[in-house]
UniProtKB/TrEMBL annotation:
The keyword Flavoprotein applies. This is UDP-N-acetylenolpyruvoylglucosamine reductase. GO terms for molecular function: flavin adenine dinucleotide binding; UDP-N-acetylmuramate dehydrogenase activity. Its cofactor is FAD. PANTHER family: UDP-N-ACETYLENOLPYRUVOYLGLUCOSAMINE REDUCTASE. NCBIfam families: murB, PRK13904.1. One of its GO terms (cellular component) is cytosol. It comes from Caminibacter pacificus. It is an enzyme of class 1 (oxidoreductase). It catalyses: UDP-N-acetyl-alpha-D-muramate + NADP(+) = UDP-N-acetyl-3-O-(1-carboxyvinyl)-alpha-D-glucosamine + NADPH + H(+). Belongs to the MurB family. The gene is murB. Cell wall formation. The active site is at R137, S179 (proton donor), E249.
Length: 253
């Protein structure tokens, strides 16, 4: 299939190229794109694939929650809210799909998708959570995720739901890839970027958000090169000023 990443990508950057519809029998070491919510794609990326639509489902089975990896985070959030299931309240404003969220252990504050995870289905078959290393915005999963099984706990937490929505009101609405950098231990990437004078800085069509400095937004016509300039500038300035090496949370292809 042909995908125009300047339309699909959340930051509206990327080429129009051929992408494989991936299932368990045709993987050939492609990089798997979910919703391109945290992926910056150059004009010359590696071979890309998107999960086949057969992996877009939610089932309650044998007392567990079984979810296809192509299911959007917000779809799972809505399902859990309707069915009074707790543990997924943080997905309300989290873009992307379940497979990508598991691979990067996505979350909001201490609420992470690995918390309720029991097992994932990969090319090797089913892999239990205890055999996967998860950390802050990290897992050691290095192959496609096709399905996942989660704990099924009743009691959707409306108070937590509201709290998390308020927490995310400081994030810009313009096209972006979310947080560009991981927060260094004991600090915040946005605070450091602001301290080195980059809040509001613009290169071409990409701007460091004035609402939250760890969000780089596309204000119109932004390019891969514009984004990379600001990423490298932030890393350089923060290291020179604070001796801290910022690490990208986004994936760069």
């Amino acid at each position: 299939m042909i995908v125009d990443f300047s339309k699909l990508s959340y930051i509206k950057i990327g080429p129009k190229i051929e992408v494989k519809a991936l299932h368990e029998d045709n993987y050939e070491n492609e990089f798997v794109i979910g919703r391109a919510t945290n992926t910056l794609i150059s004009n010359n990326p590696p071979k890309l694939a998107i999960l086949d639509d057969r992996y877009k489902f939610i089932d309650i089975k044998n007392g567990y929650l079984k979810v296809g990896a192509k299911t959007q985070n917000r779809t799972l959030y809505s399902f859990c809210k309707r069915n009074d299931i707790k543990g997924f309240e943080f997905l309300a404003k989290l873009p992307g799909s379940i497979g990508g969220s598991i691979k990067m252990n996505a979350g909001v504050k201490e609420y992470e998708i690995s918390n309720s995870l029991l097992a994932i289905k990969t090319l090797k078959g089913w892999v239990e959570k205890k055999d996967i290393n998860f950390d802050y915005r990290y897992s050691d999963i290095n192959e496609p995720v096709f399905e996942a099984i989660f704990e099924l706990k009743q009691g959707f937490d409306y108070e937590l739901d509201e709290k998390l929505k308020i927490l995310r009101q400081n994030q810009p609405l313009e096209p972006s890839l979310g947080s560009v950098f991981k927060n260094p231990k004991g600090d915040f990437a946005g605070r450091l970027i602001e301290k080195v004078g980059m809040k509001g800085m613009q290169k071409g069509g990409i701007k460091v958000s004035e609402k939250h400095a760890n969000f780089f937004i596309n204000v119109g016509g932004g390019t891969f090169e514009d984004m990379m300039f600001l990423i490298n500038e932030a890393k350089k300035r923060v290291f020179e000023s604070f001796g801290i090496k910022l690490e990208e949370e986004i994936v760069i292809l």
